[in-house]
Amino acid sequence: MNIMILILAALLPAILLFLYICKQDPQPEPKSWLTKALLYGVGISVPIVIVELAIEYAIFGGEISTLFDTTIRAFFVAALPEEGFKLLALWLVLRKNPYFDEHFDGIVYAVCVSLGFAAVENITYVVSEEENWMSVAILRSLLAVPGHYAFAVLMGYYYSLYHFVDHSRRTAVCILLVPVLAHGIYDAFALSGTVDPSIGGIGAMALIYFCIKMHKFARTKMLAQIERDKNAKYTA
Question: Which helix (H) or strand (E) holds 50?
């Protein structure tokens, strides 16, 4: 199979979600800053892999054999390092960004960072499964990449909420805690069948249900920020 076809298949869901979030933005951000956010997301891929491998070896020594193990792996090997580095990248993008002036902007930039990382991750999965690349690409385009998108919406929502509205410690904690919880629960369901195939079907159904609820919740947060920006303009 042509490697370019595999890469394109892996990139397509991230590209579509990037175009979608940009279309939702009432006041589009400069392309240069969006590109910067995407590249930061790409750039964190290497340190994330290194940290994840180090944590996994430290906790499990290379062996995962129980559902408890997969749950710990979901939260502490995958969710926490990935969302932590995404937050670092988001902060680096926004700390001196003169265009970060609306509530919805936090979501847009968070999604760009996350999709940059998700694109790299997706390429590695699709290319490594050359014989079954199509099924992998389809499954990840329906679940994994949109999952990263939803985690980012939640992170961006709380980032903007803290920056513009509520400087409480609770909101500050939610910037990282909420996407880590969402990501960890997602991965826990996704990994459940790897050590116990008998409950793999239950885990898959739970994952789909969770994703539907998560995306609906993320959508409400997007609409809330758009409404805040509208109200700010009316009262200005």
Answer: helix 45-60
Q: What is the DSSP letter of 28?
A: P
Estimate the crossing angle of helix 144-160 against helix 169-195, to 10 degrees.
170
Stated pTM of the model: 0.95
94 Cβ contact list (under 8 Å, min separation 6): 100, 105, 106, 109, 159, 163
Q: Is 216 helix (H, G, I), strand (E, B) or coil?
A: helix
What's phi and psi for 63, nearest 5 deg?
-125, 125
Is 159 strand, coil or helix?
helix
Structure tokens at 147: 């999952």
- Rounded (5°) CA angle 210-161-35: 80
In whole angstroms, what is the distance from residue 95 CA to residue 194 CA? 40
Nearest to 37 by CA among 103, 101, 102, 118: 118
Helix%, strand%, coil% for the chain, nearest 5: 85, 0, 15
Per the CB < 8 A criterion, the answer to whether 214 and 153 are in contact is no
Q: Residue 1 — pLDDT band, cuts 50, 70, 90?
A: low
d(CA 188, CA 173): 22
The structure tokens 């996704």 sit at: 190
pLDDT, one tens digit per residue, over 183-236 is 999 999 999 988 878 888 899 999 999 999 999 999 999 999 999 998 877 665
